[in-house]
């Protein structure tokens, strides 16, 4: 690990003021410290924000909830209000990593989790995300774990987070504060970005912006939800493909639907076409299958990840079925 | 007591300490044979059978501090590391992980380095009561936090019930992932009491305290600790026994003569 | 120690060193409190084939706290190989940093020694290498098959005429099975603390065989063997990767010599992919022929594996095919392809684990085609003679293993037709595989030290044996307890120090038989000598306390040695077993889980069922890993391992496993050795991948011939001909 200045902080203002070029805020460290050990992340200052107080869950005036960015994933997923009102989010969060890592990882940090692309991790290999202009090793190399949607010539990596997939299905806003202490809200769908020709940028955060909270709108999919995670071992593995499915039913038809996929794109992939198709339809196998066809219609796999198209369809149908059949 | 060889040589010229006596009771050595035994022992076995029991503090005091030129570091940090109920003032490199601080500076080598990247769980400790990975925790962030390691859970003479259960059910082989497994298991007892959910929990909206975890729940919740020797089944049994309070029976048996005869003559 | 009430061999006592392991007190290599130690970090090459053209160490050297940067330019001269591509063994020299040649991606090209671990790690990245990259690295297995060569005369075997046997068959099958590169990955990272004093070096090192380690280190440095002491009191798993001295250990010894302080090197998990051995890729072509009644007529097993371009290692996948079944026409071949990868080396049941997967799968394929129960098919072709050597087995209870296991498992509930046993989205399958593993036994020395006080005798056993999780401490204590007639509590076992009497070390499933018979020998000699001095007849029963008293002694030492008998050499000595798996496969997602397993083992006298059970489930777990997800992939353009961490290389986690019932057959194989012990550490792994793959066929009708069986492969795989969807 390269040397860096460690700056402890007690308040968010202190943290924001400490920010300088090439600083990183240090939350749980589960991703950042790992990447520093790998010499992928090379900050010259770490601003420790672990002692800051935006680590609470509170109810908003509109009936939604505000999740403090510094709250751990396990505290968030286990919070009674989240389990009751947003069980899809709890389930997705708890599918991730391990109890130890979830105890460390923060909500803000999870939003910023970087890709697991092995070309990104191995500093002797080309990677435009790690080292802009060096090329993409995965495109003509080993790409079984890579994107089938929304990639660019410069990067085909995927976002590895489970939490993000659930948030994409549920809908959310991210509250951030700038170094001048002003704040702004970023719709979740705009928080992460596609690689384009700037794959080094995972998100639309600006330098120095500090994530304060994730805002959820009023409770949704509390009765019919499922987070399906297909992986190479039964636990402690990133998803090959994951699907977050939530639905609400009225008079036997789907009145509201949230459907998003993980492991397929540079950002959590909202399956908008499938959602639109399913709205107002009966929750049956035939409709689920049609929605899955629509969802995967635009997939453009590489040599090694062709399996993701078929697996994706099966995963959508299964997640929708599980969500529907769940006894409310 | 920084060198087992020297320690052995010194034995003739001094009395055994109380700590040492306790240890020998532990390993079943009595009377004058203690001293004789110690002298016969090799350096290696000495540090296995004796010195390790009582030497962590002593070893720690003799472990090297940082090099003399503090300007080596961009950021030299002074912290008070509170480990197993005692406070250790340390001057550290900002890059030092909690894991390396424990192992290389405090001689608390019970916490293991299995991957150093948060991918195996061998370095699991409890920080403020929660199980966390010491390899991805920078020591600098631990000021004012309470760290509990395997050494703080129990000692050979006074084991934590989970340590006893692991011994009884052979929940280990090489022993390297074991401290992490045990710290994880102890923390899990608390998580179950608190009613925390896991990915395999049936219904997230059902919130109860004092969960009685199913085998699948236990396995999922202990999946963050890799055991390459493959002692998982014994680990699950050890956990179950402490969790439920009921005796767990072994799942091995010997074939009976009747079975043998039947098989042969089938 | 409190729960140790029982004594003697055969009792399920707790591990005698267990209290140290569960409290974190057991000391592994990098944990010895050696004064003034400093830290080193090795540097790896970033090309697969070529030469170093220049090295810039200046940036690293000017960093405060850096003590030395070692490269081939300033490294100590070591003994190097005198022939091209020498075969690797457990005591082979390990020259490192001797020239500018690069043989594979990840090869050590330098070492930084520094005051602290953090500085060493950082400085290692500051050493800049430029390379001349050769254009033709051998990194794509499929394109290199034409370069496969026959390593030696022992690579091939045949009896009868396989072509004729296939022609006589009513049904024949020709299938190719592949297994990927796998890594041992013991949880303890390989490590060494090397310390020189007065021309002698002490190495606290994670090694399975300390005697061979002293040979390899002394040979490499060209110093007398007695100037090298290796201490490995506790070894955090090995599985073959710590059999030999790997190059980090040589680097540690070299660095310590060069700077004059003790040096600690801990190999990183990433380096454990490239620098501590691996199980090589194998392509196994199986041909099998049988009559309609199930009589085998032919069996051929042709294996192509890779070795490195600079050393040779051959894992014989076909070993098991030569001896397991009664088949008159049999052919086994092995070919090697030199590749620009790290040299492979023995991983748990080398040859048997991978070979059994192919053999036991093709046996299942044939049983399916014959419409025969796979257990009955195996039993029909059982043999009590090792046809490959034309000599009897010392004992072989494979049929008993299969039948007793079938009953325990509930095999009668298995559906012969795939895809007919379902539960919701799950397809349920039962699979079986036979297990077999050679059970060697080697010359072993030991020393016993008796110490009497107030009528109570304490005994210390010293051997250079290691306990790599196998239970050596415990079973040796039990052996001494039995042969000295004193409780286990009064036995102190000291292992893992090359100053102690020589043993073969831990590997190849010979540990238990060798160590215990070695310890037995010293105890028997002590008793016998003490009796002789007092003219007491050998058969007379006198306690050891009484004997010492009669001799007017308070202490006594004896040395013993055990070695294989002539009878042993005239027999084929194997452990046998059978594994039964119930596997549930998700019909859509391709995810699958092991629901339960039953394993039956016939492995001679079981010294301690608790630790023996551990060995069996340990083998099964690692074997489950072979089936579930373990694979190391070679990047086709750069030649590095794209799976480079525990996040990419998936070893099994707790949730991957399920209940395992283990049945030991009551057996004492006195031909094997005096105590009737056979090996058990590798038996488990030889049966599990096959039984899982067969269960997956039974569940899905898909024959998975390429390990691991990942969800994406299962989704893609076609139904086998004749299976109803």
TrEMBL record, chain A:
Per its UniProt record, what Gene3D superfamilies does this chain match?
A: 3.30.465.10, CO dehydrogenase flavoprotein, C-terminal domain (3.30.390.50), Uridine Diphospho-n-acetylenolpyruvylglucosamine Reductase, domain 2 (3.30.43.10)
**Residue stretches in coiled coil:** none
Where are its TM segments located?
none
Record-annotated FAD-binding PCMH-type domain positions: 1-221
UniProt xrefs under InterPro entries: CO_DH_flav_C, CO_DH_flav_C_dom_sf, Diverse_Substr_Oxidored, FAD-bd_PCMH, FAD-bd_PCMH-like_sf, FAD-bd_PCMH_sub1, FAD-bd_PCMH_sub2, Mopterin_DH_FAD-bd
Q: Which UniProt keywords apply?
A: FAD, Flavoprotein
- One Pfam family it belongs to: FAD_binding_5
Protein name (Swiss-Prot/TrEMBL): Xanthine dehydrogenase family protein subunit M
Source organism of this protein record: Christiangramia sediminicola
Automatic annotation (TrEMBL), chain B:
Every copy of the 2Fe-2S ferredoxin-type domain together lies at 77-153
Renumbered to this chain, the signal peptide range is none
For this protein, the record's InterPro entries field holds: 2Fe-2S-bd, 2Fe-2S-bd_dom_sf, 2Fe-2S_ferredoxin-like_sf, 2Fe-2S_ferredoxin-type, 2Fe2S_fd_BS, Aldehyde_Oxdr_Iron-Sulfur, Beta-grasp_dom_sf, TAT_signal
Origin: domain of life: Bacteria
- List the keywords (alphabetical): Iron, Metal-binding, Oxidoreductase
What PANTHER family does the annotation carry?
ALDEHYDE OXIDOREDUCTASE IRON-SULFUR-BINDING SUBUNIT PAOA (PTHR45331:SF1), OXIDOREDUCTASE, IRON-SULPHUR BINDING SUBUNIT-RELATED-RELATED (PTHR45331)
Protein's name according to its UniProt entry? 2Fe-2S iron-sulfur cluster-binding protein
- Give the species: Christiangramia sediminicola
From TrEMBL, chain C:
Residue ranges occupied by any Aldehyde oxidase/xanthine dehydrogenase a/b hammerhead domain in the UniProt entry: 23-135
Keyword set, alphabetical order: Molybdenum, Oxidoreductase
**Gene3D superfamilies named among the record's database cross-references:** Aldehyde oxidase/xanthine dehydrogenase, a/b hammerhead, Aldehyde oxidase/xanthine dehydrogenase, molybdopterin binding domain
Record-linked Pfam families: Ald_Xan_dh_C, MoCoBD_1, MoCoBD_2
- Keyword Oxidoreductase, does the record have it? yes
Note the SUPFAM superfamilies from the entry. Answer: CO dehydrogenase molybdoprotein N-domain-like (SSF54665), Molybdenum cofactor-binding domain (SSF56003)
Name of the protein this chain belongs to: Xanthine dehydrogenase family protein molybdopterin-binding subunit
Top-level taxonomy: Bacteria, Pseudomonadati, Bacteroidota, Flavobacteriia, Flavobacteriales
């Amino acid at each position: 690990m390269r040397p860096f200045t460690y700056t402890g902080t007690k308040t968010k203002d202190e943290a924001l003021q400490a920010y300088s070029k090439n600083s990183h805020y240090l939350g749980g460290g589960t991703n950042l410290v790992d990447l520093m050990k790998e010499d992928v992340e090379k900050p010259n200052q770490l601003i420790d924000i672990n002692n800051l107080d935006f680590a609470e869950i509170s109810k908003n005036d509109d009936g939604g909830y505000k999740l403090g960015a510094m709250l751990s994933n396990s505290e968030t997923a286990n919070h009674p209000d989240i389990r009751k009102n947003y069980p899809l989010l709890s389930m997705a969060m708890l599918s991730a990593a391990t109890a130890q890592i979830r105890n460390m990882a923060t909500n803000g940090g999870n939003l910023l989790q970087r890709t697991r692309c092995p070309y990104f991790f191995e500093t002797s290999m080309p990677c435009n995300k790690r080292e802009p202009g060096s090329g993409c090793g995965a495109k003509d190399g080993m790409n079984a774990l890579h994107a089938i949607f929304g990639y660019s010539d410069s990067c085909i990596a995927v976002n590895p987070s489970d939490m993000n997939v659930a948030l994409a299905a549920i809908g959310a806003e991210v509250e951030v504060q700038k170094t001048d202490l002003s704040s702004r809200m970023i719709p979740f769908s705009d928080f992460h970005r596609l690689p384009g020709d700037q794959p080094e940028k995972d998100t639309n955060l600006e330098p120095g912006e500090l994530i304060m909270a994730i805002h959820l709108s009023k409770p949704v999919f509390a009765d019919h939800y499922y987070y399906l995670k297909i992986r190479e071992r039964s636990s402690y593995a990133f998803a090959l493909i994951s699907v977050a499915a939530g639905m609400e039913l009225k008079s036997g038809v789907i009145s509201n639907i949230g459907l998003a996929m993980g492991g397929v794109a540079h950002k959590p992939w909202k399956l908008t076409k499938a959602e639109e198709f399913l709205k107002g339809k009966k929750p049956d196998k035939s409709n689920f299958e049609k929605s899955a066809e629509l969802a995967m219609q635009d997939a453009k796999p590489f040599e090694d990840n062709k399996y993701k198209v078929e697996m994706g369809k099966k995963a959508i149908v299964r997640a929708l079925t599980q969500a529907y059949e769940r006894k409310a | 007591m920084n060198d087992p060889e020297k320690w052995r040589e010194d034995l003739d010229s001094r009395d055994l300490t109380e700590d040492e006596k306790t240890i020998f009771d532990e390993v079943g050595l009595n009377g004058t044979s203690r001293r004789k035994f110690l002298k016969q022992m090799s350096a290696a076995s000495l540090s296995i059978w004796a010195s390790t029991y009582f030497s962590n503090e002593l070893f720690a005091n003799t472990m090297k501090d940082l090099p003399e030129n503090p300007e080596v570091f961009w950021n030299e940090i002074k912290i008070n590391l509170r480990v197993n109920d005692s406070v250790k003032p340390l001057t550290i490199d900002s890059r030092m992980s909690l894991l390396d601080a424990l192992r290389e500076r405090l001689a608390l080598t019970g916490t293991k380095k299995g991957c150093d990247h948060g991918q195996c769980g061998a370095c699991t400790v409890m920080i403020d009561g929660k199980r966390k990975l010491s390899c991805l925790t920078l020591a600098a962030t631990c000021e004012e936090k309470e760290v509990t390691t395997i050494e703080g859970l129990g000692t050979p003479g006074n084991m934590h019930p989970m340590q006893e259960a692991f011994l009884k059910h052979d929940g280990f082989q090489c022993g390297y992932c074991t401290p992490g497994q045990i710290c994880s298991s102890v923390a899990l007892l608390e998580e179950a009491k608190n009613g925390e959910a896991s990915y395999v929990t049936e219904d997230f909206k059902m919130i109860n305290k004092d969960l009685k975890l199913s085998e699948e729940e236990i396995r999922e919740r202990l999946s963050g600790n890799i055991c390459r020797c493959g002692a998982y089944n014994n680990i699950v049994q050890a956990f179950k026994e402490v969790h439920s309070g009921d005796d767990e029976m072994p799942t091995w048996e010997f074939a009976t003569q009747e079975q043998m005869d039947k098989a042969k003559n089938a | 120690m409190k729960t140790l009430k029982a004594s003697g061999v055969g009792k399920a006592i707790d591990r005698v060193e267990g209290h140290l392991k569960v409290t974190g007190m057991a000391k592994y290599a990098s944990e010895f409190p050696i004064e003034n130690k400093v830290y080193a970090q090795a540097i790896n090459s970033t090309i697969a084939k070529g030469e170093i053209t220049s090295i810039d160490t200046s940036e690293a050297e000017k960093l405060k706290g850096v003590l030395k940067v070692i490269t081939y330019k300033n490294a100590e001269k070591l003994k190097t190989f005198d022939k091209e591509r020498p075969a690797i063994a457990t005591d082979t020299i390990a020259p490192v940093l001797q020239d500018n040649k690069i043989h594979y991606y990840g090869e050590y090209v330098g070492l930084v020694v520094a005051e602290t671990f953090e500085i060493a790690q950082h400085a290692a990245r500051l050493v800049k290498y430029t390379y001349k990259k050769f254009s033709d690295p051998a990194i794509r297995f499929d394109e290199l098959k034409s370069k496969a060569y026959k390593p030696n005369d022992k690579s091939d075997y045949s009896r009868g005429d396989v072509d004729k046997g296939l022609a006589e068959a009513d049904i024949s099958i020709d299938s190719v099975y592949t297994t990927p590169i796998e890594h041992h990955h013991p949880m303890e990272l390989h490590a060494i603390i090397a310390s020189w004093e007065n021309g002698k070096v002490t190495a606290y090192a994670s090694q399975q065989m300390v005697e061979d380690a002293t040979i390899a280190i002394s040979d490499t440095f060209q110093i007398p063997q007695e100037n090298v002491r290796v201490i490995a009191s506790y070894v955090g798993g090995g599985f073959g990767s710590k059999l030999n001295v790997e190059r980090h250990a040589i680097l540690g010894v070299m660095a310590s010599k060069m700077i004059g302080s003790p040096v600690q090197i801990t190999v990183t998990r990433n380096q454990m992919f490239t620098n501590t051995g691996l199980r090589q890729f194998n392509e196994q072509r199986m041909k099998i022929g049988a009559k309609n009644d199930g009589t085998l007529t032919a069996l051929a097993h042709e294996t192509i594996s890779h070795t490195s371009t600079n050393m040779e290692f051959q894992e014989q996948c076909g070993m098991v095919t030569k001896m397991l079944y009664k088949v008159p026409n049999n052919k086994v071949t092995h070919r090697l392809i030199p590749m620009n990868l790290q040299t492979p080396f023995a991983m748990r049941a080398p040859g048997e684990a991978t070979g059994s997967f192919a053999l036991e799968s093709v046996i299942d394929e044939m049983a399916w085609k014959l419409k025969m129960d796979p257990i009955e098919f195996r039993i029909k072709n059982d043999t009590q003679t090792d046809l490959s050597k034309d000599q009897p087995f010392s004992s072989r209870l494979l049929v008993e293993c299969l039948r007793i296991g079938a009953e325990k498992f509930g095999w009668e509930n298995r559906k012969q037709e795939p895809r007919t046993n379902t539960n919701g989205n799950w397809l349920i399958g039962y699979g079986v595989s036979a297990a077999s593993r050679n059970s060697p036994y080697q010359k072993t020395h030991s020393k016993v030290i008796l110490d009497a006080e107030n009528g109570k005798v304490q005994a210390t056993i010293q051997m250079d044996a290691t306990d790599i999780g196998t239970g050596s401490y415990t079973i040796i204590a039990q052996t001494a307890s039995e042969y000295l007639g004193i409780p286990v509590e009064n036995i102190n076992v000291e292992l893992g120090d090359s100053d102690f009497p020589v043993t073969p070390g831990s590997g190849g499933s010979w540990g238990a038989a060798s160590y215990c018979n070695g310890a037995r020998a010293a105890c028997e000699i002590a008793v016998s000598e003490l009796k002789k001095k007092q003219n007491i007849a050998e058969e007379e029963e006198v306690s050891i306390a009484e004997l010492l008293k009669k001799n007017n002694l308070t202490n006594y030492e004896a040395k013993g040695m055990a070695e294989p008998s002539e009878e042993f050499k005239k027999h084929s000595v194997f452990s046998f077993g059978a594994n039964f798996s119930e596997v549930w496969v998700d019909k859509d997602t391709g995810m699958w889980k092991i629901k339960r397993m039953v394993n039956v083992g016939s492995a001679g006298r079981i010294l301690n069922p608790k630790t023996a059970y551990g060995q069996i489930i340990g083998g099964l777990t690692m074997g489950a890993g072979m089936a579930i997800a373990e694979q190391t992939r070679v990047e086709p353009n750069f030649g590095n391992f794209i799976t480079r961490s525990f996040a990419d290389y998936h070893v099994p986690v707790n949730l991957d496993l399920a209940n395992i019932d283990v049945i030991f057959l009551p057996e004492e194989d006195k031909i094997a050795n005096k105590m009737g012990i056979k090996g058990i550490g590798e038996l488990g792994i030889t049966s599990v991948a096959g039984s899982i793959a067969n269960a997956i066929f039974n569940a899905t009708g898909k024959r998975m011939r390429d390990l691991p069986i990942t969800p994406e492969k299962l989704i893609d795989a076609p139904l086998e001909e004749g299976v109803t969807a």
